[in-house]
Amino acid sequence: MEILLLGTAAGGGFPQWNCACRMCTADLPSRTQDCVAISRDGAGWYLLNASPDIRAQVLATPRLAAGPGPRETPLRGALLTDAELDHTLGLTMLREGAGLRVWAPAAVLQALRADFPLQGIVSRYGAWEWHQAEGSFTVDGLSVTAVPISDKKPKYVQSTADGPWVVAYRISDPAGGCVVYAPCLKTWPEGFDELVAGADCVILDGTFYSPDEMSGATAAGVGSGAQRAMGHIPIAGPDGSLAQIARHPGKRWIYTHLNNTNPILDPDSEQYKEVLAAGAEAPPDGTVIRV
Ligand code: MLT
Ligand code: MN
Ligand code: ZN
């Protein structure tokens, strides 16, 4: 299986257009919003989430280039972990195509029908298919398991529908190779250790380095950290994800969905060195992984 990290920043990207924080003005490598593409055979590709930056991401990625027919594309579908705008808006950018097969949890599909009626909108442009991602299912020969991990609802959603609002995906190729994609983790959820056991690569929520990053004493001063950090487990600290990673050596741990305040965006930072020393990494957009 081939895995392309198309984008590795949280909503807003890095730098963020309306932000003049220390990190956004530091002239560090830019990152587009979180999106991954996977393929079993290199011919058909499936997105994990659909970033608003998808057009630029596809154009920057030779593996996803259009062809060989004049209107052919290797993009076949998308699996959504949640209904957040930074993970779903990209579908509207793909309306010029013939339509995709989309999988998402039931609550997410409902939000994309009612609160933000993206399903109805793009379906007027092509033959889109909408499938509920629940339990285990097969996507083009890949075995996929959707695991509920959080009840964090997008801000725009008004419905009081029960979740799960966020899932992680465990995707394995029967011929070998397994990846877990979990860019929206509130805590280290129960059962997550079992989920990542046996995976070659785990792509993980790296939104915040510390829980008070946006407003704390050493922080960016761009908002209420306690509030924003809710719904995203920090990397550092006793309750952070890095402490958990240490218990699972021997696999590739990749942080994605990095918020523009996260000090690990600077590869020379002490914080990023700590991440590397613990056996994890935050590689740039465009990284190719084979498992
Ligand atoms: C999140 O990941 O928490 C959301 O994407 C926040 C947002 O609306 O940008
Ligand atoms: Mn997000
Ligand atoms: Zn910033």
Description:
The longest helix has 8 residues. A hairpin with a 5-residue loop joins strand 9 and strand 10. The mean pLDDT is 95. It contains 9 helices and 14 strands. The site of manganese (II) ion has 5 residues, from loops. Manganese (II) ion binds next to loops.
State which percent range the strand residues make up. Answer: 15-25%
Helix content: 10-25%
- Indicate the CATH class: Alpha Beta
CATH architecture: 4-Layer Sandwich
Class by SSE composition: alpha/beta
> How do the SSEs run, as a string of H and E?
EEEHEHHEHHEEEEEHEHHEHEE
Strand order of the largest sheet: 6-5-4-3-2-1-14
| Bulk shape | globular
What is the fold named in CATH at topology level?
A: Metallo-beta-lactamase, Chain A
Instruction: Identify the CATH homologous superfamily.
Output: Ribonuclease Z/Hydroxyacylglutathione hydrolase-like
Mean pLDDT: 95
Strand elements, count: 14
How widely separated are the two ends? 6 Å
- The low-pLDDT segments are none
C-alpha-based Rg, rounded: 18 Å
What small molecules does the structure contain? Answer: D-malate, manganese (II) ion, zinc ion
Number of helices: 9
Instruction: Give the number of domains.
Output: 1
For the sheet with most strands, the description reads: 7 strands, mixed
